[in-house]
Amino acid sequence: MAAANLTSQTLRLPTPTSLSLSSKLPLSSFSLPLPSHRRRSLVVFVSADAKPTVLVAEKLGEAGLTLLKDFANVDCSYNLSPEELCTKISLCDALVVRSGTKVSREVFESSGGRLKVVGRAGVGIDNVDLAAATEHGCLVVNAPTANTVAAAEHGIALLASMARNVAQADASIKAGKWLRNKYVGVSLVGKTLAVLGFGKVGTEVARRAKGLGMNVIAHDPYAPADRARAIGVELVSFDDAIATADFISLHMPLTPATSKMLNDETFAKMKKGVRIVNVARGGVIDEDALVRALDSGIVAQAALDVFTVEPPPKDSKLVLHELVTATPHLGASTMEAQEGVAIEIAEAVVGALKGELAATAVNAPMVPSEVLTELKPFVVLAEKLGRLAVQLVAGGSGVKSVKVTYASARAPDDLDTRLLRAMITKGLIEPISSVFVNLVNADFTAKQRGIRITEERVILDGSPENPLEFIQVQIANVESRFASAISDSGDVTVEGRVKDGVPHLTKVGSFEVDVSLEGSIILCSQVDQPGMIGKVGSILGEENVNVSFMSVGRIAPRKQAVMAIGVDEQPRKESLKRIGDIPAIEEFVFLKL
Fold first, then answer.
1. On the CB side of 23, how many CA atoms lie within 13 Å of its CA?
2. Rounded to a whole number, what is the distance in angstroms from the first to the last CA of the chain?
3. 20 to 30 A from 435, CA-CA: which of 36, 49, 66, 461?
4. Bridge-partner residues for 356, per DSSP?
C-alpha cells in the first residue's frame, strides 16, 4: 500500500508550509499555534520521571505483561468491582482492560487526573466512556490488527464446514445416525465468492479462498482497485456482487450505512442457493429476513459467528435452523491472536506513557476551548464536505488523492488546519469504516488506507476576523455517481462556507449552489427551465418530506443546471424515482449527512 503524503502549501508563499502531524510526535511538546495575544502551549500530558504504574484489570497474554513490566510497575488485579476499580485507579497511570470491565466516567473522576491512558485489549471500545476520557485528558488506545488472521481463518473454516455440512453431520453421527445421503455437500473449486468489505480481514479471506480454487470478487466503496487486482480480485458493485455470488462472506463494520444491509430486498436479488458467512458484526444482517430467505430456498445455508444480540436467545429461530452453522463469536479466539492482542496493546500503552501519539488512539487530545469555539462551525463544515465528497465517488473507484483548499485572510501561523483536515478525513472514512478518526489518528488512518492528502492555502485580502472564507475538497482520479460533481479539473469537487454560524454547501463540481448542510441533500442535474423547483417540491410535499433549502446553480439560462435540495427526512425510493422520472432531470443522487 502506498504511503500517504500529507502536505500543505500556501499560495503566494515561496515555500510550502508543512502541517503534517507525525504519528510519533511527543505528547509532551504537542501544542496548537495561537495568535500572539493568546498564545499558550497545549500539553496533552507529560510522562513522569518516576516509573509509572499500570493496572491490568483482566487477563492478558504473558508476552504483553512482560513488555509492560519492562517499563512500568504492573498490578494485575482481576474481577474488580466498580467500587474497587475506582479506589485503585487513583494510584495508576494506565489501565488495561478487555471487554468485561466498564471504564465509566466515575473511574476517570476517581483517578484525580493521574490516569493517562486506557488500553483496550481488542477492537471494540463500547465499555469505555470516550467522552469522559477526553474530558479528563486520558488517551484511549485499542488493538485492532492482531486478530486479523484469526478472524480470516475462522471465516474460511465456516465456509468449508458449511459447504460440507460438517456441524450437522457431526451432530447426527453423535446421535447414533448414519445419514450419508442427507449430508451431500458442494465443492468450493470454481465457485464465486463475494467478499463484502475488503479491509484487512476481507483481504485475508480472499487470499485463502483463491488458494482453494475459488473465483473471488469483492465490493468495498473505499478499497483501491489496484490492491484488489494485486491478489487477483475484481472490485464490483454491491448489486453485481450479490447477484453473481455462490458464496458471500461479510467483513464490513457495523455502521448506520451497513445496518441490516442484507435484508428482504437484497436477498431477493441474490442467486438462488447462495451460501452466506458472517464473521463481521451481527447487525449487518436482518436476522428475521435471513430466516425467511432460508425457508424459501433463496439462501441454501448460513454460517454465523456473530449475532445482533449476543448471546442470542435460546429459542432463536435463526440459531436453531437446521441450515445454519453457528459459533459463539470465536473469530479472534486463537492462542496466537490472544497473544498478539496482548503485545499490540502493551506496545500502545507503553508508547503512550513515553509521550508518543499512539497510532491506534480512538479519542482526541484536548484542544483549547477558544480554538474550538472559533472553529466549531468550520469543523462541522469540514466533516460534512468529506462525507459528501466520498458519497459522490462511484463504488470501486478507490479514493487515493484528496486536495483540500482553505481560503482565508489570516497568516498561516494564525490558522492551524490540523483539526479541519482530521474532520475531512473523518468524513471521508467513517461512513464506510469502523475506525474512529480524530486529531490523534487522522494522518495515520489516511496513510494506512493509501490516501494522499494535500492542503493548499488561498490568501485573501480583507479582515482576518473570520478564520476561513471557504473550504474546498477535491478527489482526483475517480468516477462519480453524479457526473455534474466533476469540475473542470476532472475531480469530484465540493465547496462550502459558514454563513451565520451554519455550514452551507456552495459549489458542486463547477456549479454554484447554496444549501444548508442540515439533514440530507438531493442533487439533481437538469436542463434549466421554468417549473422545475415546483415539480420537485410537489413530489416531496406529497410524500410529507420537509424541504429546508432549495437552490439552483446554472451555467446560463435554459442551459445545464444543478438543483440542490435540503431535506429533513429521507424520501422513499419511490419518491426519488418519481423525481428521476421528470423528463428534464438527467441524473440525481441522494446524499446522507
1. 17
2. 29
3. 66
4. 26
Determine which one of 234, 329, 374, 469 is catalytic: 329
Q: What would the pLDDT profile of 522-545 be if each residue is shown by its tens digit? A: 999 888 888 888 888 889 888 888
Catalytic status, residue 321: no
Helix 418-429 × helix 369-391 angle, to 10°: 30
For 272-304, b/e burial (b = at least 16 CB within 10 A) is: eebbbbbbbbbbbbbbebbbbbbeeebbbbbbb
Residue 555 Rama label (left phi>0; alpha psi -120 to 50; beta): alpha
CB 483 within 8 A of CB 42: no
d(CA 418, CA 19): 7
Residue 510 pLDDT greater than 80, yes or no = yes
Active site residue 281: yes
Q: How far apart are CA 264 and CA 276, in angstroms?
A: 14
Options 98, 219, 251, 281, the catalytic residue: 281
pLDDT of 440 reads: 64
Chain-centroid distance of CA 15 in Å reads 34
Give the C-alpha separation, 243 to 113, whole Å. Answer: 55
3-class secondary-structure state, position 301: strand
Weakest-pLDDT range from 44-58, 336-350, 465-479: 44-58
Q: Distance between CA 219 and CA 238 in Å, rounded?
A: 6
Residue 494 grid cell: 465540493
* Amino acid 20: pLDDT: 29
Of the residues 12, 38, 62, 310, only one is catalytic, namely 310
3-state secondary structure 340-383: HHHHHHHHHHHHHHCCECCCCECCCCCCCHHHHHHHHHHHHHHH
DSSP H or E run through 166: helix 166-174
Q: Nearest Cα to 152, choosing from 99, 100, 212?
A: 212
CA angle centred on 88, ends 83 and 90, rounded to 5° = 110
pLDDT tens for 77-136 read 999 999 999 999 999 999 999 888 999 999 999 998 899 999 999 877 778 998 888 777
- The pLDDT value recorded for residue 369 is 56
- The Cβ-side half-sphere exposure at 219, using a 13 Å CA radius, reads 21
